Sequence to fold (377 residues):
Amino acid sequence: MRRLNRKKTLNLVKELDAFPKVPESYVETSASGGTVSLIAFTTIAFLTIMEFTVYRDTWMKYEYEVDKDFTSKLRINIDITVAMRCQYVGADVLDLAETMVAAADGLIYEPVVFELSPQQKEWQRTLQLIQSRLQEEHSLQDVIFKSAFKSASTALPPREDNFLQSPDACRIHGHLYVNKVAGNFHITVGKAIPHPRGHAHLAALVSHESYNFSHRIDHLSFGELIPGIINPLDGTEKIASDHNQMFQYFITVVPTKLHTYKISAETHQFSVTERERVINHAAGSHGVSGIFMKYDISSLMVTVTEEHMPFWQFLVRLCGIIGGIFSTTGILHGFGRFVAEVIFCRFRLGSYKSTSVPLPDGHTSNHLPLITDNSMH
Fold:
């Protein structure tokens, strides 16, 4: 009884078979079918390789939300070389809350030579080339995000030559922690001193002839310092045309959370516009000579996440490719055979001419003669 029920179940399952097997004796092969199959297999192999390449690749997803963190401190990473002696210049930050952060809190003044060595010049040219490409092709920023922490360092390499010239410039480098509000980081003549109404710089003892605010920005970033990230002002060099000249950078800082398969960090991106002018009070161009970086904090926060195609989606797309190519090539092959048979049959029918066959009663027949085995012999 159990065997009978099992046999009925198997027969029922066989009737539900959507893929019936055709005996090989009933299968007819052809050269055209083999050619189409070869083309189909080649196309499947090519598209499978391309799809696997897409599966291995990742992309960056950008999400925006309101930044609710206003109590934490903002870190500013600075590496700027000014073509003046260190005793003549001072750097500090003054924010909208009238809070002054002196350079002594985290910046180092290092006497250096302003002219770069050959290796350093090559580094600067490479960095400037990357900056120009980033301005033209914004998608390269995704590549930089992915290569963070594993690419080569973007810091200025040390001098490889023994330059005997005495230092004529001052390298100001290090980091500062400031309030998360708009502020002004500046480098001008004289050291900064606190003042009840703000702050001041001791510039009276410095001759105007020694003013030279030609400068090179080797690095400027906000937030956590991430190796491999190239910021908009990295590699910037400005040469002053006058002793009394002001360089201004207007910066908009955007808080950014970066989540990739390599790192997870909280940093800041920024955009910048530049302006420079000569200070001439007689011509109505007022101001103070120096380098001024006025920054403002955006209220929006960007979350950058590296995403990857799920494996199930890769399988679905792969099945679609294989099934679609087999179905399409089968339809095209069947249609091609149908057209070829129609044309060939018409050609064969047109090759026969009608002949008159005499009948015993004296009539003639215009039908085609019946071909028999005897007539073929």
